[in-house]
Amino acid sequence: xxxxxxGFYTERxxxxxxxxxxxxxxxxxxxxxxxxxxxxFVMLGLPSDGKPLLRAYSIASPSWDEGLEFFSIxxxxxxxxxxxxxxxxxxxILLRSKTTGTLVHDALTPGKRLFMIxxxxxxxxxxxxxxxxxxxxxxxxxxxxxxxxxxxxxxxGFDSVAATKDDPLIGELAQTQLLHFASxxxxxxxxxxxxTSLISDGTFFTALGLERFDPAHDRIMLxxxxxxxxxxxxxxxxMGFKEGSNAEPGSYVLERAFVG
Length: 260
Ligand code: A2P
Fold this sequence. Notes:
Elements: E1 8-18, E2 23-29, E3 41-46, E4 53-58, E5 67-73, H1 81-84, E6 92-100, E7 113-119, H2 124-130, H3 133-138, E8 141-148, H4 155-165, H5 171-177, E9 178-184, H6 195-200, H7 203-208, E10 218-224, H8 226-239, E11 252-256
Parallel strand pairs: 7-8, 7-10, 8-9, 10-11
Antiparallel strand pairs: 1-2, 1-6, 2-5, 3-4, 3-6
């Protein structure tokens, strides 16, 4: 399908999975002409009476996948997600043809370890990146970190890591190069606490058996709550990390997870 005159694709929902009363995952058909870099986001939404209602959504599937996957929050009273959470297989959704974002390999200088630090739905772009063979070529090690309020909110991350390690294309690479760290802040679990505290007190590194951050060879991507991004960014700068962009790659990049 090609984009219509307004630059929209109309695609069909192919899968919907509700994880909690706040989170769900869905897949849609991919327009053949839609090209994107793993980690980017796209404007997605629903037809509505007047103007289409759209929000920015990180694509959670890799660029080689024939479908498109998304991970969404359900915001009570949220103009789009109130409706989007009711989608069923076969329903139509709208996609803009342009994709963009800073959580991409192009915005980082070469390094050895790639840390992908997320909270909530901020894990989505990293699910795309950890399924991309390029990530395993560019980095010796990929570390996916996901912090949520509740244990049930971590499930999408666990499922995606398991599927990645089982994938015929990248499974073998992921089994040796991909590490996963998950923590909760409002319920006990294997690792409890905000990622900021777990980084500062060293728990994060001890749990993974890794050396602490070193700007010489570590690259970091941040995605999730605005406050988390700001606070982790403020910890990284004094260590010597420099924020990167597509125009000027650096040692860390960030993007807030979109809601609505
Ligand atoms: P907390 O439960 O202590 O607020 P949300 O669901 O509100 O988007 O938050 C997702 C996760 O991000 C929660 O576990 C939350 O912890 C955590 N979080 C919120 N603000 C910060 C921050 N400034 N630094 C680190 N983690 C944060």
